[in-house]
Amino acid sequence: MARTPVATIQEANDALIVQGDVDAIATYFAPDYVVHLTDGMTRRGHAPIRGFVNLVRSAFPDVQVEVEVLIEGKDRIAWQRTMRATHRGEFQGFPPTGRRIVWRDMLTSRFEGARIAEEWAVVDRISGGRVGLSIAAGWHPEDFVLRPENFGQPKTALLDQIDQLRRL
Questions:
Q1: What is the pLDDT of residues 82-117, one digit of tens each?
Q2: What is the pLDDT of residue 144?
Q3: Which residues, listed in sequence order, are joined to residue 104 by a DSSP beta bridge?
Q4: Nearest by Cα to 58 from 94, 107, 9
Q5: Residue 24: strand, helix, or coil
Q6: Contact in structure between 122 and 134 (CB atoms under 8 Å)
Q7: Helix count (H) and strand count (E) of the chain?
Q8: pTM reported for the whole predicted model
């Protein structure tokens, strides 16, 4: 029986991040995979996945991953990943601290068949991960399912909502 998209996400996180099996990338990701990152950058192919796995595993060898599926659609899933680990290796210029960390990101994964073809990854860049918050303007009608009146004016809506958030 074919793997479900939810099972694919859970198994990919376990095989790649927890176990560090970068040879399994092709099992879970399409050859022409595309990822859209929080900073607006787009990366293609399996190399960015391999780089991410190696970066995380070298700095946090005991990493554990929890996947929480938020919304399932016809060919995509919105989900949150929570990683917990001990900082044991250099990470983006920071020497190992031996401290336990918790890192959250949110992703939307689009599937073609049984493999992930495209993802949008959002990392909390406002609070440095302290409040588990992510903000994005959105650019596709499906991004506005809860507030359809904001489609067509995403930047204005985003700035208004950031102002509201700051007042909290």
A1: 999 999 999 878 899 999 988 888 999 999 999 999
A2: 47
A3: 82
A4: 94
A5: helix
A6: yes
A7: 4, 6
A8: 0.73
Locus of tokens 């990366």: 43
Q: Which amino acid is at 99?
A: R
From residue 63, how far is each of 84, 100, 131 by CA, in Å? 6, 10, 20
d(C-alpha 79, C-alpha 56), whole Å: 19
Which long-range contacts does 80-83 make (Cβ < 8 Å, 24+ apart)?
80/104, 80/105, 80/106, 80/107, 81/13, 81/105, 81/106, 81/107, 83/17, 83/56
In angstroms, the CA 134 to CA 19 distance is: 27
Coil/strand/helix, residue 92: coil
E strand residue ranges, the chain = 29-36, 42-44, 64-72, 76-86, 100-112, 115-123
Task: Write out the H or E segment, with its range, that includes residue 141.
Answer: none
Instruction: Report the candidate in 76, 65, 164 with the shortest Cα–Cα distance to residue 120.
Output: 76
Give the separation between CA 61 and CA 44, rounded to whole angstroms: 26
Which helix (H) or strand (E) segment is 167 a member of? helix 154-167
Q: Are 17 and 57 in contact (CB under 8 A)?
A: yes
Give the list of residues 6+ apart from residue 4 with CB closer than 8 angstroms, or none.
none
